[in-house]
Specification:
One of its GO terms (molecular function) is phosphatase activity. By secondary structure, the protein is of the alpha+beta class. The protein is 41% helix and 19% strand. The protein contains ten helices and eleven strands. Helix 2 runs parallel beside helix 4.
């Protein structure tokens, strides 16, 4: 709007009084300003309008020198070219973003509100600016052995980690259907990453992860941790970290290091489990203090599960915490009374 407004103001002022002819130099700024907001066609029209106003006798600006007039024409033509280049670049960026969104939906489809007996709410923000997919991942699946969930964090960030995320999610989704216990699911994911690492050109691949499996009645959850921050149990307005002995990260050979130990956590009606990646646990405030996630969850424990991840994200911003890694959050709330069976497609 600024170029149009400037053109209108200068034209009106010079038509009203001849004393405003000193404002004529502002017409030369209209084409460059148009580049910021308009495409090449609109920029060309505004540039033509500026040159036209310069040559209308009624505006008292019809005495520009040849050099001044040619300068305005040149600036207008150059602005049209720059606007064309910018519009092409913007179109390319829009296409790349659309591809990124398609990749994100393919890698991590949006969670449904419910998977089996479990209500779900997920949250994801990549650490790398302009990137929709990073090194964190999560998924919740219903299968023959119950509802199972995973959250993980692979080595690296951004697009370089996407291939590893795809591989691990594929292994998890297959294992949900085939493996009868969580240790076997973790072993399947570890083997997948070990095989992929053997073909990697630089170093070994690894990822942290935590796996959960809910009992059919929703009164217990089994947990296996592989180097990943443990879930936080929200119970009667309190937030307590689940005590679990973590195994080594995935990809380092669980068979050699010893499989992780599964634990069973009893659940009461209304209990929820909050899972978060390092991006949340290791966020730091201005005094370089880690974000106190369990304590903050205790204050937010009575919030609606679907709103809890967004509230934690807002709390991080309110406390001025610096987030240095991908941020992933997952809230799982078993509600067996409202259960409906059937695996996710």
């Amino acid at each position: 709007m600024l170029p149009v407004l400037l053109l209108a103001v200068v034209s009106t002022a010079t038509l009203i009084t001849s004393h405003a002819r000193d404002l004529g130099f502002l017409l030369g700024a209209i084409p460059p300003l148009a580049v910021l907001s308009y495409g090449p066609l609109a920029t060309a029209l505004l540039g033509t309008a500026a040159v036209t106003v310069l040559n209308i006798p009624a505006t008292h600006l019809n005495r520009p020198g040849n050099t001044d007039l040619l300068t305005v024409v040149f600036v207008a033509a150059l602005s049209v070219f720059v606007s064309y280049v910018r519009s092409r670049r913007d179109a390319q960026l829009d296409t790349e973003r659309a591809i990124g969104e398609a990749v994100q939906r393919a890698v991590m489809p949006p969670l449904p509100d419910r998977v089996g007996i479990v209500r779900c709410s997920g949250f994801y923000r990549a650490a790398q600016d302009g990137t929709l997919v990073g090194g964190d991942f999560f998924d919740v699946r219903d299968g023959p052995y119950g509802v199972r969930a995973v959250m993980g964090d692979v080595q690296g960030h951004g697009l370089t980690a996407v291939a590893t995320v795809v591989s691990l999610l594929g292994a998890f989704r297959e294992a949900v259907l085939d493996q009868g216990d969580l240790e076997s699911v973790a072993a399947r994911m570890d083997r997948r990453l070990t095989v992929d690492s053997a073909g990697a050109r630089h170093g070994e691949l690894f990822a942290t992860g935590v796996l959960l499996e809910f009992s059919p009645d929703g009164r217990a959850v089994r947990v296996v941790a592989c180097g990943h921050p443990v879930p936080v149990l929200l119970h009667e307005g309190h937030a307590v970290e689940v005590t679990v002995v973590s195994g080594p990260p995935l990809g380092l050979g669980l068979a050699d290091a010893g499989p992780p130990r599964e634990i069973t956590v009893p659940l009461a009606p209304g209990d929820r489990l909050f899972l978060a990646s390092d991006g949340v646990w290791e966020a730091r405030d201005s005094s370089d203090t880690f974000y106190p996630l369990p304590a903050r969850l205790g204050a937010l424990a009575r919030a609606v599960p679907a709103e809890l991840p967004g509230m934690v994200w807002a709390d991080l911003a309110r406390l001025g915490c610096e987030v240095r890694d991908d941020v992933t959050m997952l809230v799982l709330a078993p509600e067996p009374a409202a259960a409906h069976r059937g695996p996710r497609p």
